[in-house]
Amino acid sequence: LSQLLKKLFVEDQEFMKVFEGHSAAKTVHHGFIGGLMEHTLGVTRLCDYMANAYPVLNRDLLITTALLHDVGKTKELSAFPMNDYTDEGQLLGHIVIGAQMVHDLAKEIPDFPEKLENQVIHCILAHHGELEYGSPKKPALAEAVALNLADNTDARMETLTEIFHADKGKKEWLGFNRLFESNLRRTGDI
Asked: Across-strand partners of 183?
């Protein structure tokens, strides 16, 4: 697994330059320069916590997939200032693009185990958790479940943070929010 990460995050300088400056989304959460890196690190921190708390999880697989889960966004969205969906992004989406990227990387590593490749790709394919949220597969591995929970937690908490900061503390009740399907209220001086 470390070979996959090394190939992408250490040896591929061009990828790293794009990854570091990319957003994690067009809108909703982490839609800013560096947002993809921030989101990836947030998800990885949550997965690190879960790997320590739940021995059923394969730590190496979980941390690897946390780092890789959104690499397809580097091709799904264009760079700033556009930050819009590319043709590839519209047609395939970041989940499929990321799975393809990992497949291609694994093929460059001599004797990379097919079973391990399939597990990594499954976690990427299932990281949105539900078919209606864009995942081609529902989580079938404990690590895929944990990755989905971490991804959703980081995305939602950043979304709340952005909603509260946009209001600049003007009011306690912010009104109904479609994403959360709730009338949101701040609890402090955020």
From this structure: 176
Over 80: is that where the pLDDT of 28 sits? no
Domain at 2-185: CATH code: 1.10.3210
| Mean pLDDT value across residues 30-39 | 89
Give tens-digit pLDDT for 87-130: 999 999 999 999 999 999 999 999 999 999 999 999 999 999 98
**Facing residues of 27 across strands?**
none
SS3 190: coil
The residues near 18 (Cβ < 8 Å, ≥ 6 apart) are 74, 79
Q: Residue 182 has what pLDDT?
A: 93
3-state percent helix, strand, coil for the chain, nearest multiple of 5? 60, 5, 35
CB contact set of 179 (below 8 Å; sequence gap of 6+):
28, 156, 159
Provide the residue ranges of all domains of the chain, joining segments of one domain with +. Answer: 2-185
**Burial environment of residue 90 by CB neighbours within 10 A (0 to 12, 13 to 18, 19 or more):** exposed
Q: Got the DSSP string for 151-169?
A: HHHHHHHHHHHHHHHHHTT
| Nearest CA-CA partner of 155 in 72, 4, 38 | 38
